[in-house]
């Protein structure tokens, strides 16, 4: 009889910070891996909150997400390692600009070999039929709910400067939703996206150094000690980030098992 081990990997950060890019490249490297989007748990548009100042539908706040359903699905994933065949993702149909470099393809081959060697070595003499599964959890409010954080074995946070994220957001023409499409109003980033990012991460410390705070007072901090933070301001550092991410997963496996 085979034994199953599931590793959940959280990839959080602002909209357009580079979460999905990292997740999709890790999907190429980690065996038996599943990409799970928080964006698939948006409420129906009629149930979304309305910003009291701009009167815009607010897709970028916690009340826009069905957190109970997201959490229950994540808990099940943490046990079984893959989504049920009946699960339908809308987010998978959104198109994102990818990073294309020949050296990344070579890096993927090397890291794939590395992770498979580690997984093979982790199998003891009494457990030869172990099956490893990896769940990549992509979310812009991934570290908002403490119960969600508890379900994440490995925790990544992607950072980028405000103006860079704003330009990336402009490159997206629309977002596929359950009911159709959503397009940003002209000032949606400045009035909704960025203020909400600051507001709902203001007490999160990205590591123990106060210089890495999103915003907020030290005595109110939520410190996630095993968080790994990546800078995604330019594509040139992506290869190093990807390798660091894989090595972090390996360290977790070696420590845990």
Question: How would you characterize the overall build of this protein?
Answer:
β5 (175-177) and β6 form a beta hairpin. The strands form three sheets. The protein has a five-stranded parallel β-sheet with strand order 2-3-1-4-9, sandwiched between helices. A two-stranded antiparallel sheet has the order 5-6. It is globular and about 60 Å long. The chain has helices at residues 19-29, 67-80, 102-121, 146-150, 162-170, 188-199, 238-256, and strands at residues 3-13, 33-37, 130-139, 154-159, 175-177, 180-182, 204-205, 222-223, 227-231. The protein has one domain: Rossmann fold, CATH 3.40.50.300. It has seven helices and nine strands, in the order βαβααβαβαββαβββα. α1 crosses α3 and α1 (19-29) crosses α7 (238-256). The two termini are 19 Å apart. By secondary structure, the chain is of the alpha/beta class. The model is unreliable at 207-213 (pLDDT under 50).
């Amino acid at each position: 009889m085979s034994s199953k081990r599931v590793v959940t990997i959280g990839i959080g950060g602002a909209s357009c910070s580079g979460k999905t890019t990292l997740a999709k490249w890790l999907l190429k490297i980690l065996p038996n891996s599943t990409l799970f989007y928080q964006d698939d748990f948006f409420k129906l548009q009629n149930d979304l909150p309305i910003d009291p100042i701009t009167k815009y539908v607010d897709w970028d706040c916690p009340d826009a997400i069905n957190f109970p359903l997201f959490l229950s699905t994540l808990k099940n994933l943490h046990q079984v390692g893959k989504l049920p065949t009946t699960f339908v993702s809308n987010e998978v149909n959104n198109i994102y600009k990818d990073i294309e470099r020949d050296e990344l393809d070579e890096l993927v081959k090397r890291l794939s070999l590395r992770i498979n060697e580690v997984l093979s070595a982790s199998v003891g003499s009494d457990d030869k039929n172990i099956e490893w599964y990896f769940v990549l959890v992509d979310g812009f409010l991934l570290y908002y709910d403490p119960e969600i954080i508890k379900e994440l074995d490995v925790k990544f946070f992607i950072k980028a400067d405000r103006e860079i994220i704003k330009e990336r957001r402009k490159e997206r023409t629309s977002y596929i939703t359950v009911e159709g499409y959503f397009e940003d109003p002209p000032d949606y980033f400045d009035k909704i996206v960025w203020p909400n990012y600051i507001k709902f991460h203001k007490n999160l410390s990205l590591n123990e150094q106060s210089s890495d705070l999103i915003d907020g007072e030290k005595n109110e901090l939520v410190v996630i000690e095993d968080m790994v933070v990546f800078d995604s301001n330019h594509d040139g550092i992506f290869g190093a980030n990807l390798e660091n991410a894989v090595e972090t997963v390996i360290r977790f496996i070696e420590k845990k098992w």
